[in-house]
Amino acid sequence: MQNNLPLKTVLLFVLILFSNALFAQKAYLVSELPDPKQNGGGWVSNPDGILNESDVAGINSTITELESKTNVQLAVVIVNDFDHNQEDFDFAYKLFSTWGIGQKSSNNGVLLFIAKDRRKYRFITGTGAEGVLPDVKLKHIAEQNLLPAFRENDFSTGIINTLNAMGLIILNPENKSELNQLFTQQTGNNNLEKLWIPTAIICLSFFGLFRLLKRYSTKKLKPKKTDKNDYNPALIKGCAVIFIILIFITIILFITGGFSIFKEIKPDSIPLILFCILSISLFFRYLFLIDEIRKTYNDDENFSDAVKSFHQKYWWLIAFSPLILFAVIRQVFRRKEANNRFKPILDSKQQAMIRLDRDINVEGKPFLTEGQRKEEIIKAYDYDIWESTDHKEHIIKAWPAEKYDQFTECPSCKFRTYQLEKQVTVKTATYTHDGQAKLINECSFCKHAEFIRWITLPMLVKESPRSSSGSSSSGSSSSSSSWGGGSSSGGGTGGSW
């Protein structure tokens, strides 16, 4: 028997160590604490069971009643222990921010964090609640209601007494202005009825503007379907620039995870966002209108005068779409540059010559050759024809047009109608075989051509459908808590018992 005693003693010692390790208190990380809003929708997180079920129900009932009267949302977290690498303030502040306690519109949240084993408590208040619950008052409430009960290990009574004392402070007539502000912020952001008036005004205003521009287009403009005016380069460039900017912003948001900023958009921002969207739409409608004016007038001077007349009459559109201002400024500079072009030329008798209206004489006959007219059609040159008053003299002046740089002088006919490295498809590529094209230099007037080489067009490839499960799961994992996204600047108080 005596030889067995040491062995029993060792086994008992090991059993005690194992039991202590098994029942050791957990030191929680912020990420490990259960959020009551996602676990039954209450206000109390009690993972270690320090409070019994009836205590939790009573505290939840007290907070619910307090929230209905004061619009202050309280969270109570009570644990045995927490992360040993953090102080109670840092831990509680991080917990408040992680959950987003309170409403984002009013920051009306308050957190009461309690660590039983460390005998620590900490209040963290949202920025909107600091005015009605300043640090000094919270400290006084804790000393009078919370600490005496905690010293007797009566945590439920201490918490409820503290909550009731906070309610008396908030509902004090002296704090009426702060209390009204909390309710005003909440109703002002949650009541969408107040958004209908500005939203309706914006929608009706832009609807009227689009109708006005359509009426102007119908009554004043009669676009001609000519090769010269098949599109407006400024319109194409403007659309391309905005499209590139949108792609660039999307890439940046994707890389930085910035799509979460859309969660920060408040309901009262809807009218502003709507105005911006409609403002951009109006800008594009303006560009299309300028394009219609371009297609109405073959003569460049008539086109310039028509645009000037439109700007003088509808300059106030800039107030609804500031982007139009840049287009107007650009047109003003282009008109100044063209002053020398449209300035009358003197004939041999020093008499002012008359410029031929190309809307009346589109082909420029009998002054322009077929080659010169072809240069106009492909937009390599614009020709101004000046004729003396006695019709005995005329002068032709060439001006580089929109596609001047895309052509060069043809070695055969000598007109600027020669396009270099033009790709002509001979066999179209499909999903089953490659295609073929030839690269040539070709004149669009005399059809002189020089073969350069053959080009293989790669076979078309069908895109495989992408799975959206990855993106959806990442989106759900990053969603904010159901508290409402409140924030704190670090206000509150704390201490020990």
UniProtKB/TrEMBL annotation:
**Which keywords annotate this record?**
Membrane, Signal, Transmembrane, Transmembrane helix
Signal peptide region: 1-24
Region (Disordered), start-end ranges = 464-497
Q: Where is the composition biased (Gly residues)?
A: 483-497
Record-annotated TPM domain positions: 44-166
Q: Where is the composition biased (Low complexity)?
A: 467-482
Query: Is Signal one of the keywords UniProt gives this record?
Result: yes
Q: Name one Pfam family in it.
A: TPM_phosphatase
Q: Where are the transmembrane segments?
A: 195-213, 234-257, 269-288, 314-333
> The organism sits in which domain of life?
Bacteria
Please give the name of this protein.
Answer: TPM domain-containing protein
Its source organism is Pedobacter rhodius
